[in-house]
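Team,

Forwarding the record for the chain on the shared tracking sheet. I've put the sequence and predicted structure together so nobody has to dig through attachments.
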Amino acid sequence: MTVTTGKIYDSKNSELPADAIYSISVDSKNILWIGTSYKGLVKFDRKNFIVYNKSISILPVNKVTSVYVDKHDRIWAGTPEETVVIDNDKWMTAAELDRSNYDTGIYQINGDRLGRILFAYKFGGFGIYDGKKYSSYTLENSQIPIKGFYSVTADSNNIIWLGSFEQGVVKFNGKDWDWLNKSNSELKDDLVFYVFTDANNNKWFCTYFAVLFVYNEDGIKLK
């Protein structure tokens, strides 16, 4: 077995502007895009750091809560206000991309196997961009049972899972909604900070007070 040595980059030994990191994503050129807590969006080509903040870019604030690179190699940068998209070095708001009225308060941006972009909103519902238009799901316009989401993922069946703040998990199959929490499921904690789907279609739920919870309707498959 070959063991490689990693390197830790921080604000003291590099030009990384902050140690508080919300999100990291990698594009097709192996460039890292880093969302920081209050220092903007950072581009790192493994040699140099370039910092984009609201003073030199269209970022509305310097808090970048989520970064996602889609199948077209576009960088989606979510903030508490607008979502910004970088396409071949062209910066635009998500609203300028498809003329939709996007929600605000992003906590995570993710994607699914259909190529759709998924948005989880800390103080709202969630959204889907299908490549042509944006659709918003809120308490006011849908049957979504709760609001306030920290994370979103889609499994191999394109079922969407949303982790919420102290309210458990919401499951959406494109038509019907299920609300899972510690009172009606095996979840031990309703504060689900992060949800993730692996290659075996296991759903991983990272909670705040309890343990890491793994679920698979066809049986958990771990190596």
